[in-house]
Structure formats: structure tokens, C-alpha cells
Amino acid sequence: MRGGRLVPKSAAAPRAAGAAGPQIISDLAPYRSAAIDIATGRRALIGGRAQHREFLRRNNYVEVGNDFVAPRRAELNRSERIADIRRALRD
Questions:
Q1: Is this structure's pTM higher than 0.90?
Q2: Which pLDDT score, from 0 to 100, does residue 83 have?
């Protein structure tokens, strides 16, 4: 809409070449798992995303990605803290 009015489709600007549209992601290429499958006791051959999800679910595995995990500060008791300060002052 331009100025609150509809314009004929032929008068509208062409869509950009990279405009959003359906995106198709190919299935996973078959691979051998790094972990053991409890059903067979061996590394499984995974043939697609559905098999990958089922393998993780069946074995209670959790896929770890590149999510940021904030580092935790070490909890030191009083004597450990004093020793740590002394060590830092000597260096």
C-alpha cells in the first residue's frame, strides 16, 4: 500500500532476488554415531534427522551445540581464599 491505497500489481516494485521464501534443508547424510546404542551395544548407523532424534531419545543422550554457558566462579572457603591471595601476591 502506498499512501493508504492499493496499487496494481504491475506497478509494484519487483521483489528482491533474495526475498524470503520457503527454505528447504536437506536431510542428514548417513553417518556412524560416536556413542553406543543401548539397543545393539554398538555404534549405530544414522540415516536421517528422524533416526538421529530417535537415537538420542532412546539412549537418553542430549545434543550439545554451541550455546553459551556462563562460567561459574569457584566457591572457595576462607582458608582456600587466603591461600589463593598469598599465592597471587608471591607471583
A1: no
A2: 93
